[in-house]
Amino acid sequence: MDDTGRRTVLIIEDNDINREMLSLILENDYNVLQAENGREGLDILSEHGDRISLVLLDINMPVMNGYEFMDEVRSTPSLAHVPIIVTTSNDAVDDEIQCLKKGASDFVVKPYNSEVVRHRVDNMIHLREASSLIQVIEHDMLTGVLNREIFFWNAERIMRDAPDQDFDLVCTDISGFKFVNEVYGKEEGDRLLRQNGREIAGRLGSGEIVGRIGGDEFAFLVKHKTREAHEALTAHLNEALTGSFGSKVLIKTGVYHTGTSREERDLTAAAMCDRARQAIDIIKNRYNQNCGFFDDEMRRDLEFEKFITDNMEQALAEEQFQVYYQPKHRLDSGLPGGAEALVRWIHPEKGMMKPGLFIPIFEANRFISRLDYYMYEHVCMDLKRWKEMGIPLVPVSINASRHDFEQPDYVSQLDDLTHKYGIDHELLHIEVTESAYTDNSVMIDNCISELHEKGFRVELDDFGTGYSNLVSLNDFHFDVLKLDMGLIRKLGTDREKNILDFVISIAEWLNMETVAEGAESREEIETLKAKGCTSVQGYYYSKPLSGKDFEAYLKEKMNL
Ligand code: C2E
Ligand code: MG
Ligand code: MG
């Protein structure tokens, strides 16, 4: 389009009369350029290609005929998008077929009817401009590959159209991309993305597509390939892209093989992408593996996760979750001084499930807070019953997830339950796991203060599992320090015993009691006693017990 809004049409025709006629038909509405043969036309098109909206092309011409012209144009990427209308004689069906094969968009028949010519030209230009607008909307501006939505939409369509074909949906992740942006500048980052898109696109076959689905993430859909082929492609991407950045930049790919089963094919492309990304997560820190595959184990994990999520609501409603109690014994008297409430899921078909199987899933889907509330209430119910039975009560610790603290009324809910069942606040301890307060320390600190105000005691769980931060012991006011099993299990060398010594003396100095978790042997008990540890919770004394068994245990140990 020129400044006045007029579009330009190129007429390539060796016959002067025909050329002038076409020109006359169009020149009211268009700027008209003329060429006498294909070669001349090609020169004009090469020079003004971006200005030319359409070519009218004769077939039989000297120097370069219409077929040769079309071959040249279609194999030159910068020109290939220009629509071509071929001018033919009335009876040349073979010509038409030949032209269509070579990519002609439409025909006009000689002798020319001016109305027909004008409409064909108008329509074709309009159509092409509309579709190139769609092209822009569908493509990622920076890299030219499909954008996220269009990629997913097309991927689903392609898979639907070929139900018997196995596909692989592959995601790529550029680790160190932030580094490139920060150190080499955004320009280099953009270049890296464009090149990644180009390299992938260059490796695709027909009916295979690539899209940019996030900042530095690309996804592509290809017909199913061997592992080796995927590994080779990943190696190729790394070779092509990361050279100048050395080991700082690494491309990892994850492959999800769709299979052809109904259930798998019903997944959305976005869900398949998530799976491919999970495969990347698994190999993220493996330095010798850049291509990961979503495999049967991950499939089983996901199926299990689905089972858990599908059944959790019903389980809560039917009270399939039960409170187990693991006694804590004081090392001075040897008597039970408390217990930890641990959840067990008694599933009608699967039997008893340990929390390690489902708590991580509940943490991720936030169901954990409802379970924790349920546990808290059931502990209150048990304590109330034992109190009524005249059994000497010991404090019960309940585990709190970090998500519990995110609820603004968490502490007041516990307080309400405590009043409802008439339990003393000192009988309820809240265990906060070590990793929780490293995430959101201000919120946790406020919660601990609130709990203290109400009269609850707060224990720091799992101390020594890797997040250990002695400074935070001083900043947060825990009443009890629970030493993780890992610390107790490693009491072989003098050095290890010294560490334990050190931790216990700090706890004493900060006025905290210490509970050692997971002691199993007489020897461990003796060492812990010698170091001044307050209590032990471990198989040496007892495994976690059902409510009924714990009731009997208390009666026996307290000599009733
Ligand atoms: P935790 O709070 O550190 O609980 C201690 C875990 O160590 C329990 O595993 C217990 O059975 C186990 N244990 C205790 N003594 C020994 C021993 O001598 N040897 C061995 N090998 N293990 C011992 P469990 O019951 O499987 O619980 C695992 C984790 O699940 C708990 O770790 C806790 O973080 C979480 N959890 C359990 N119940 C709940 C709950 O109701 N709510 C929340 N948020 N988390 C819970
Ligand atoms: Mg605990
Ligand atoms: Mg623990």
Written description of the protein model:
There is one protein chain. The chain has an eight-stranded mixed β-barrel, surrounded by four helices. It has a six-stranded mixed sheet with strand order 6-8-9-7-10-11, sandwiched between helices. The protein has a five-stranded parallel sheet with strand order 2-1-3-4-5, sandwiched between helices. The N and C termini lie far apart (99 Å). α2 (38-48) packs parallel to α3 and α14 (368-389) packs parallel to α16 (410-420). By secondary structure, the protein is α/β, with parallel strands linked by helices. The chain is elongated, with a radius of gyration of 37 Å. It folds into three domains: 8-138, Response regulator (Rossmann fold); 148-294, 2-Layer Sandwich (Alpha-Beta Plaits); 320-554, TIM Barrel (Alpha-Beta Barrel), CATH 3.20.20.450. It is built from 23 helices and 21 strands. The mean pLDDT is 90. The structure holds ligand C2E and magnesium ion (2 copies).
Q: Give the helix level as a range of percent.
A: 40-55%
Q: What count of structural domains?
A: 3
Q: How big a fraction of the residues is strand?
A: 15-25%
Q: What is the total tally of β strands?
A: 21
In the CATH hierarchy, what is the superfamily of the largest domain? Answer: EAL domain
Shape: elongated
Strand order of the largest sheet: 12-13-15-16-17-18-19-20
In CATH, the topology of the largest domain is named: TIM Barrel
Q: Quick check: average pLDDT?
A: 90
CATH architecture of the largest domain: Alpha-Beta Barrel
Which parts are unreliable, with pLDDT below 50 for 5 consecutive residues or more? none
User: Can you list the ligands bound to this structure?
Assistant: ligand C2E, magnesium ion
CATH class of the largest domain: Alpha Beta
Provide the gyration radius in Å: 37 Å
The structural class is: alpha/beta
- Alpha carbon gap, first and last residue: 99 Å
Q: What's the helix count?
A: 23
Question: Can you summarize the main beta sheet?
Answer: 8 strands, mixed, barrel
